[in-house]
Each structure stands twice: as structure tokens, then as C-alpha cells.
């Protein structure tokens, strides 16, 4: 027997990932059925997929995974060509009367219904025959699954035939399905207000036509039948009986036949085989759900020489007594099972490593708002990392592979938190900050002057080696595992991380000082020196940098000090806001006092509104929704500052810092001086992976108020200026100095 190629095996795993991920976030059962361990189903399926010798065995592996759902509507369908000689038979819908006055309407060649106009004409003919009928039998048994669903439902809707069959109004059931507004974090909370919920589509009330006639009605179906929603409406009203001919699903209740009543999604497994996945479930006015036929012939076959189901249906017209059906009790709302991070698996087995890859691919595929800006084929990334994760030989290789996979989302909010990675890279830093200045790693900040002075380290010293490793090789190693939206942010993150090591370890630096001397220095690493709360600058938080220009360091300014700042600069012609760092939420207090108008639009937010899986669905090639909302600057009753404003920016300006820029830009056209920012904005959400790994990423897209892109670009300086090594060594802030010159030039032209 010929075994599949390695590329085929990988493609099978990718299809497995898509089936598993689609069911995970869209199958309604997984929203409330805590008895379904969907991770375990995948873990059991992976070895079978890997061992499959052909498409048939691969299909069986998928089918076995689906069986854990206990849902006949989620199933494997073999797409066999339908060979129908339509010229030798009457086109459907077809109808005839039995000798005792039963009108039999036959629709089992659903492909005929594609002829909308012909179908409409025949349904009108049937409606004219209803007054003559003692009873009405809809024989909807199909010989194969429909290539596309919905044509039969359309025929019933368009013809309004049911309005002639009940003298009282009837109500069709609704459908509820899963929807997601952004990604609800697995750990902690978020300001993004992301939610998952049931979406319920209303039922329809069907009013009787003036000539409506109450007659016995029977619907005869089989596993491939489509069922019009009107059939359940009549069954609920005790005006119709539904018979299943040959359940074929192994559960003896015919419940899988509700696949035609609800939305499903199909994912190809091969040219001949597809997976059909339930996306919704029937729900009635009282909150119950499910589909319960009145009679099931569990072993019958259609067609056959003796059509037992058909004959039984005809007999029932002689003693027609519909009974009220007891439906399933459905929970009013969902409580999905908690995600398992499998913290005990520092180095998970291969199947769980692939579970990690599948979680990453699925979450990013559906919930990452900047997927269109990644610039990479996400399927291809999955192909690559299936192999990398399978080939990992130990815990460190596994965790590094996860970190590397996340870099491909190109989002500076893409953080990987892992105990293994913390041990590998270290969680402590020497008391210095490193940045690339003129493409050279330079010490730009010192957090402990005494220890730096004792070691002989000064601002402006360039770093040649760290712990004996060439600095550029060390930066490259760090960059391989750091997600970043822009090159400048990647280098900043890599430079920052390159100094890390174990707590109380000694960082051995080879540096070149101001006198061009190369020397080796030693600094002790402390966890405290790695805190992101460490200030970027020293000195006064607010001050005058000239007679008429105020300066405020937003990296350190507290919200409680904003009013005091404005009072201090009340007579200043201009204020420089230093946003080379991370703010403390002051934008919402400052921006209203810069704006001349109320309700000024500041930022355009977009978050994924996930209603259906992606991919082909009937005639729809793909479908996506975006929840848009515009954020405006808050109102204020305080006096407004009318002077000019400038904001200093660079690669340290990220997320809320960039959002501050959007607020100031909208408020009074604040000018930006410095260099491009990090290019990563949007509330951060997270998910977990086997091995106790947590992944963070941007949960919503943020743009300029006019729709301009911010992610992967950053705030663009109106005046571009970057620090130089000489300037740092001389103790100058060249970006601040350029901002002062710009404002003074503006004063001259006013």
C-alpha cells in the first residue's frame, strides 16, 4: 500500500486543525456541555491522522473525533456525483392524489429546486389542489446530501403554502448560535469588554390565508432530507406529524435531521469528503430546543420494494392524532468550560504540542484584529510550526518554538509568558537601559547611579559584548523570539531583553566609552531593575524649559497632578509633552483641556465580530463582520489651554502612549517631534497553552479618527529627529532641544 507523502500528512493535520478550531468556537454544544473534553478528542485523533494510510483512514480519524460531540448533524459527508436523468422523470416538486384523496407532494431530487421559477409554478399548482385534499403528505426523502442547502426552505417560504394549511397562526422555531465580540481573555480581565454569547434568530409568525384549510399533514423525511421550519411550526401546533425513515445516525431519535433546520458549515477534507459542522440549534418560544420526530423507522431503507414508512404515513391519515412533543431543555445562557493550560506538562507529549499550535492558529485566525496586516500566510506558518513543534526534543525547544510562532503575528503586544522561557532568558537586569542609537547598542539610562559609577559605566557607552557574546549576535537571538509591530520596536525589545539573566547573576559587559577605550565591566542583575514601571527620566516632572514653554513628563505625571500642571503652565505659550515611555492614564484628563470643541472624535476602534466561521459557505466565499465605534475626547467643565502643544515620541511610545498621541492630535493638532513610535495599539487579551504558557495579543484595532492606519506604522513625527551617541555622552536631549527650537520658530511667525 502506498503511504501518503509528508506534505499530505501535514495538510491532513491542517484540515484537522480547522475542523477542531471551528467546532471549538462555533459549535453550540461546547458553550455549555462540560461533559465534552474537546482537547482530549483532538489529542486522540492526532495519532490516528498521522498513522492514516489513505483518505479513508484519515476520514475515519476525523469521524471518530466528531463522535464525542454526540451530534449527528456534525458529520462526514461523502460527495458522490449525483447522476440523474431528469429527462426521464417529472421535475419536482411533483404531486399526485392517492385513491382515497391524500395529496402526495414529492421532493427528493433537491437539485430540481435550483430552477426557482419552475419550482414556484409547481408550488402554485399544488396550492390550488389543497382544497380537494383529505390530507397532505410531503415526501421529502432524499437519496444523497444536497450539494447546497436552502433551496427547499426557499420553496416553502416563497410559495407561502403553509398559510393555506392552518386556520390559526403558527410560529416557526428560532435558531441560536455562537457569536464572539473580540476574544474573552483566559486569564485576568481587560478593558476591551470582549464577550461571547448566543445569538438567537427570531422565529416567524405565519398568519393563515382567508381560504386556509385544516387538514392532516405528514412530513416524511430521512437522514439527507431538508426540513422546512414550517414543518416544526405545524408539529408544535399539533397539526402535523413528522416521520423519519431510516435514522441512519445510530441514535434512534432522528435528531440529526435538524441539520437542515439550522446553519451548518462545511470544511473539505478531500475532493470527495467534507465535514459538515453544526453552527446552530433549534430553539422554541419556551426556551426548549431540539428536533423530536413523532415516528422513527430506524432500520428502513429508501427506496425499497416495500415502502414501509410511506405506507405507515398513509395509514396514519385514517387515525390522525398528533401529540405534543417534549423537547430538550436548553440552558438559558452559556458557561463554557475553562481552558486548560496543562501546567504540569513542561514538555508536553507531541499531541499536546500540536494542540498548542492549533490553539494559536485558531485564536489568531478568528480573533486577531490585525490579521490583514501580518503580511504572512497564516496557513503556511501553521505548516512550518507543526513540524517544529513535533521535532522539539525538550521543554526549552518547545517553548522557544511557541515564542517564535507568535513573532509571525507582528504585533508588539504579542508577549509569551512561560516559566521555561523566564528561566532561559532570565528575569533580572543590570541597572541600565540599552537602546540602538545610530544603529549601535548604547547605554541610555542608568537606574542605579552608585553601582554604575562603581563599575565605571556612563550614559553613552556603547556595548560590544554581553557575557562574552557579540552584541549583534545576542540581539539577533533575542529578536527571533520577540513579536514586534515595527523594526524599531523589535530592536528596542531585543536590546532591553539582551541584558537579562538570573537574579543576582553578574552581567559582564564589554563597552566602548567616551574616550574610545574598550573595557570590561560588571553589574549585578536584579529583578527590580527589569520593572516596566522604572522611569525613563529623572528630574522635575513638570518644569519650564524656557521662559514661555512648559514641559511635562507623561511617563511620570499622575492624573491627580494634571490640574496642577495646567495651572503652572497657564500663561505659557506652549507645552511639550514627553511621551517617550508609558503614561499613567493622563490622556483622558489632558486632552479635553486642549480641545476647543466638545465631543471631538479621537480614535476609530474596530474589533472582530465573529458570527460564522471563515471559508466557503454555499455561495458565500467568505464572511466577516467588524464592530466599529468612534471614541471621542471626554467632556470637561474646566478652562481650556489655548497655547501650542508638542509631543515627544520614539520607539518607546507604544499602546496607551500612542493612544495619548491620537487624543492630542484630535484635540488641537498637537505636533509630534522625534521618531516613529512602536505601532501597536489596542487593548490586550490573552489565551493559554499546554505547558503553563500564556500568550498576549492586541484584541482590537485602533486607527486615527480619520481611519488612517496606526498598527505597524506608529505615530509619524511631524519633525523627525533622533538622538546621537555624542548627544547622549554630552548629556543633551536632542529631541527636546529640537522641539523647543520648533516652537520658538512658531512664535516668530504668529
Brief write-up:
The protein contains 19 helices and 32 strands.
Question: Helix and strand layout, with pairings?
Answer:
Blueprint: H1 6-26, H2 38-51, H3 55-67, E1 75-78, E2 94-97, E3 102-106, H4 116-129, E4 135-139, H5 151-159, E5 170-171, E6 174-181, E7 195-201, E8 205-206, E9 217-221, H6 229-236, E10 240-245, E11 264-268, E12 273-278, E13 280-283, E14 295-297, H7 308-316, H8 350-367, H9 378-391, H10 395-407, E15 416-417, H11 419-425, E16 432-437, E17 440-446, H12 449-455, E18 462-466, E19 469-470, H13 471-479, H14 487-498, E20 506-512, E21 518-524, E22 542-546, E23 549-553, H15 562-568, E24 574-578, H16 587-590, E25 601-610, E26 625-632, E27 644-649, H17 656-668, E28 671-674, E29 684-689, E30 693-698, E31 701-704, E32 719-720, H18 725-729, H19 734-749
Parallel strand pairs: 3-4, 4-9, 9-10, 10-14, 23-24, 24-27, 27-28, 28-32
Antiparallel strand pairs: 1-12, 2-3, 5-8, 6-7, 6-13, 6-25, 11-12, 15-30, 16-17, 18-19, 18-20, 20-21, 22-23, 25-26, 25-31, 29-30
Helix pairs in contact: 1-2, 1-8, 1-9, 2-3, 2-8, 4-5, 8-9, 8-10, 9-10, 13-14
Amino acid at each position: 500500500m502506498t503511504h501518503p507523502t509528508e506534505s499530505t500528512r501535514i495538510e491532513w493535520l491542517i484540515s484537522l486543525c480547522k475542523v477542531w478550531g471551528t467546532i471549538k468556537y462555533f459549535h453550540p454544544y461546547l458553550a455549555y456541555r462540560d461533559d465534552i473534553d474537546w482537547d482530549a478528542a483532538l489529542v486522540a485523533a492526532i495519532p490516528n491522522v498521522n498513522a492514516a494510510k489513505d483518505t479513508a483512514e484519515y476520514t475515519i480519524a476525523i469521524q471518530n473525533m466528531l463522535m464525542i460531540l454526540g451530534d449527528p448533524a456534525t458529520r462526514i459527508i461523502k460527495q458522490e456525483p449525483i447522476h440523474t436523468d431528469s429527462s426521464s422523470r417529472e421535475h419536482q416538486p411533483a404531486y399526485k392524489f392517492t385513491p382515497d384523496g391524500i395529496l402526495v407532494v414529492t421532493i427528493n431530487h433537491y437539485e430540481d429546486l435550483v430552477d426557482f421559477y419552475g419550482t414556484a409554478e409547481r408550488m402554485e399548482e399544488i396550492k390550488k389542489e389543497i382544497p380537494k385534499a383529505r390530507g397532505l403528505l410531503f415526501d421529502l426523502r432524499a437519496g444523497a446530501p444536497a450539494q447546497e442547502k436552502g433551496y427547499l426552505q426557499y420553496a416553502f417560504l416563497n410559495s407561502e403554502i403553509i398559510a393555506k394549511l392552518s386556520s390559526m397562526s403558527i410560529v416557526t422555531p428560532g435558531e441560536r448560535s455562537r457569536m464572539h465580540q473580540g476574544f474573552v481573555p483566559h486569564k485576568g480581565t481587560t478593558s476591551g469588554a470582549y464577550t461571547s454569547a448566543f445569538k438567537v434568530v427570531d422565529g416567524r409568525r405565519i398568519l393563515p390565508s382567508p381560504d386556509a384549510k385544516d387538514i392532516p399533514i405528514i412530513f416524511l423525511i430521512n437522514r439527507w432530507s431538508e426540513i422546512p421550519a414550517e414543518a416544526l411550526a405545524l408539529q408544535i401546533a399539533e397539526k402535523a406529524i413528522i416521520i423519519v425513515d431510516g435514522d441512519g445516525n445510530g441514535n434512534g431519535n432522528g435528531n440529526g435531521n435538524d441539520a437542515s433546520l439550522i446553519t451548518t458549515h462545511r470544511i473539505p477534507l478531500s475532493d470527495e469528503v467534507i465535514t459538515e459542522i453544526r453552527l446552530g440549534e433549534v430553539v422554541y418560544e419556551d426556551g426548549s430546543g431540539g428536533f423530536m420526530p413523532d415516528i422513527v423507522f430506524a432500520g428502513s431503507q429508501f427506496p425499497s420494494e416495500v415502502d414501509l414508512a410511506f405506507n405507515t404515513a398513509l395509514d396514519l391519515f385514517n387515525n390522525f392524532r398528533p401529540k405534543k412533543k417534549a423537547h430538550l431543555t436548553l440552558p438559558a445562557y452559556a458557561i463554557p468550560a475553562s481552558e486548560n493550560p496543562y501546567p504540569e506538562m513542561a514538555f508536553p507529549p507531541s499531541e499536546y504540542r500540536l494542540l498548542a499550535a492549533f490553539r494559536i492558529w485558531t485564536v489568531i485566525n478568528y480573533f486577531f484584529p490585525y490579521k490583514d496586516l501580518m503580511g504572512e500566510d497564516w496557513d503556511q506558518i501553521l505548516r512550518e510550526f507543526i513540524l517544529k513543534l513535533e521535532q522539539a526534543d525538550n521543554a526549552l525547544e518547545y517553548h522557544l518554538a511557541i515564542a517564535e510562532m507568535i513573532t509571525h503575528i507582528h504585533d508588539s503586544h504579542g508577549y509569551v509568558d512561560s516559566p521555561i522561557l523566564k528561566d532561559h532568558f532570565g528575569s533580572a537586569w543590570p541597572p541600565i537601559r540599552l537602546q540602538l542609537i545610530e544603529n549601535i547598542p548604547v547605554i541610555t539610562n542608568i537606574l542605579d547611579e552608585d553601582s554604575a559609577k562603581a563599575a565605571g559605566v556612563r550614559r553613552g557607552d556603547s556595548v560590544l559584548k554581553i557575557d562574552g557574546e557579540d552584541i549583534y549576535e545576542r540581539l539577533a537571538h533575542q529578536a527571533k523570539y520577540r513579536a514586534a509591530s515595527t523594526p524599531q520596536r523589535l530592536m528596542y525589545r531585543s536590546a532591553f531583553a539582551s541584558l537579562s539573566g538570573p537574579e543576582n547573576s553578574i552581567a559582564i559587559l564589554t563597552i566602548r566609552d567616551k574616550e574610545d577605550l574598550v573595557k570590561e565591566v560588571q553589574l549585578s542583575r536584579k529583578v527590580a531593575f527589569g520593572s516596566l514601571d522604572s522611569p525613563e527620566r529623572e528630574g522635575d516632572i513638570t518644569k519650564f524649559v524656557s521662559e514661555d514653554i512648559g514641559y511635562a513628563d507623561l511617563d511620570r505625571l499622575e492624573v491627580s497632578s494634571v490640574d496642577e500642571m495646567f495651572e503652572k503652565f497657564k500663561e505659557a505659550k506652549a507645552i511639550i509633552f514627553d511621551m517617550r515611555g508609558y503614561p499613567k492614564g493622563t490622556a483622558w484628563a489632558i486632552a479635553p483641556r486642549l480641545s476647543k470643541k466638545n465631543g471631538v472624535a479621537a480614535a476609530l476602534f474596530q474589533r472582530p465580530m465573529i458570527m460564522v466561521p471563515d471559508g466557503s459557505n454555499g455561495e458565500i466565499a467568505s464572511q466577516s463582520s467588524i464592530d466599529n465605534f468612534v471614541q471621542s475626547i471626554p467632556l470637561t467643565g474646566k478652562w481650556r489651554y489655548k497655547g501650542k502643544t508638542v509631543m515627544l515620541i520614539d520607539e518607546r511610545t507604544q499602546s496607551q502612549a500612542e493612544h495619548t498621541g491620537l487624543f492630542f492630535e484630535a484635540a488641537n493638532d498637537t505636533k509630534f517631534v522625534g521618531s516613529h513610535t512602536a505601532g501597536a495599539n489596542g487593548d490586550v487579551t490573552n489565551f493559554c497553552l499546554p505547558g503553563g504558557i500564556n500568550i498576549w495579543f492586541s484584541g482590537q484595532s485602533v486607527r486615527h479618527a480619520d481611519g488612517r492606519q496606526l498598527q505597524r506604522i506608529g505615530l509619524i513625527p511631524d519633525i523627525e529627529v533622533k538622538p546621537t551617541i555624542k548627544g547622549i555622552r554630552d548629556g543633551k536631549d536632542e529631541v527636546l532641544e529640537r522641539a523647543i527650537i520648533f516652537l520658538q520658530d512658531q512664535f516668530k511667525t504668529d
